[in-house]
Amino acid sequence: MSQPTETEDALEHPSSARTGARARLLDAAVESFAAKGFHGTTTRDIAAAAGMSPAALYVHHKSKEDLLYLISREGHERTLRTVRQGVATSDEPVAQLLAVVRAFTEHHARGHTGARIVNYELAALSPEHLAEIAAIRRAIEAEVRDVVNAGVASGVFHTGNPRMTALALLSLGIDVARWYRDEGDWSPADIAEHYCELALRIVGCPG
Question: Considering the domain boundaries, does residue 34 fall inside one?
Fold first, then answer.
């Protein structure tokens, strides 16, 4: 398994200590976007959070939107790898589904700060950047849909609309980032385990 990149680690641990101006600005952007939203955040906010002058941001990044794009691209690429790794754990649809749902849910819980930005600030991306991110999202959906289709074909899943079912499974995990908080009663593993039970019901599998 490849080691996480600096940007990926920032998405999972946005407040961790970091070296390098670009990475510090990325950390600051994750925190600022999460706290105020993309449109409510100024470049001055990001620079101040990074301990830099406003002009420094433009030395390392083209714009505020470019920072959002980098956060979104790395987050979506990491999610796609997470899903593919889950699929690769088995040839059996039930085992694949459980591995994907467990990893996908924990991924969105542990990295909830970055995941909120990645999934809920898409409209702020430029058309070119949005098209690139949309392609990655379609690849994620296709991986999950293929698992559902395989389960239906083998008779272990029972759903009349595999595509909608795949979208429902993804939506369930993504929404964890919206409400999950580190100080809550449930750990990421607790939520993932329960979501695996829900996933089996969604695909019509008795478990």
Answer: yes
CATH number at residue 133: 1.10.357.10
CB 55 within 8 A of CB 118: no
Tracing tokens 């961790």 back to the chain, one arrives at 16
Residue 176 has pLDDT above 50, yes or no: yes
Q: How far apart are CA 19 and CA 175, in angstroms?
A: 31
Average pLDDT, the chain: 89
Question: Domain count of the chain?
Answer: 2
> What is the percentage of the chain residues whose pLDDT exceeds 70?
90
* Percent of the chain topping pLDDT 90: 76
Average pLDDT, integer, range 9-36: 71
pTM of the model: 0.84
